[in-house]
Amino acid sequence: MANYIQTGEGRKTILQINKTDADGNVVSGFPKQYSILPAFTDPVSSIAYSALTSTTYARLTNTAFNARLAAFDNYVKSLNAGIENDIPSLSSGCYQSESSSCVVNLVVPPES
């Protein structure tokens, strides 16, 4: 049985992309939102990532999380031509702090 530690730092699941023209007006079709939880395929490596629940996503190892995040970065960039010039790394800001009332504790999943 694995033990999980709640650190008070969360992983964001939604990426929102806003695009404006030279005058600061929002371009038609924006903002766009993408979730890292549904299934997707990395267009660079052709690796398919299965859909995850919020709990499963939160429990990914750092290695698995970073791999999924890099693949998600590739996936979103493939859907938005030219975005790599505007946002070199979509992974910046992928963490969020939980509220100050969040208690750090040990979470033990139920036995299956």
Model description:
The chain has 112 residues and is an alpha+beta fold. The protein contains three helices and eight strands, in the order E-E-E-E-E-E-H-H-H-E-E. It has a domain of 73 residues. A hairpin with a 6-residue loop joins strand 5 and strand 6. The termini are close together.
Provide a quick synopsis of the model.
The chain has 112 residues and is of the alpha+beta class.
Beta-strand proportion: 15-25%
How many whole angstroms does the radius of gyration measure?
A: 17 Å
Distance between the termini: 9 Å
Q: Describe the largest sheet.
A: 2 strands, antiparallel
Proportion of helical residues: 10-25%
Strand and helix order: EEEEEEHHHEE
Give me the oligomer status: single chain
Number of helices: 3
Please state the overall shape, judged from the principal axes of the Cα atoms. globular
Low-confidence parts:
99-112
Tally of extended strands?
8
Give the neighbour order of strands across the main sheet: 1-8
Mean of all residue-level pLDDT scores: 75
Helix/strand-derived category reads alpha+beta
Structural descriptors:
3 helices, 112 residues, 24% helix, two-stranded antiparallel sheet, alpha+beta, two-stranded antiparallel ribbon, disordered C terminus, globular
What topology emerges from the helices and strands here?
Layout: E1 4-5, E2 9-11, E3 14-17, E4 32-35, E5 40-41, E6 48-49, H1 54-58, H2 62-79, H3 83-86, E7 95-97, E8 106-107
Antiparallel strand pairs: 1-8, 2-7, 3-4, 5-6
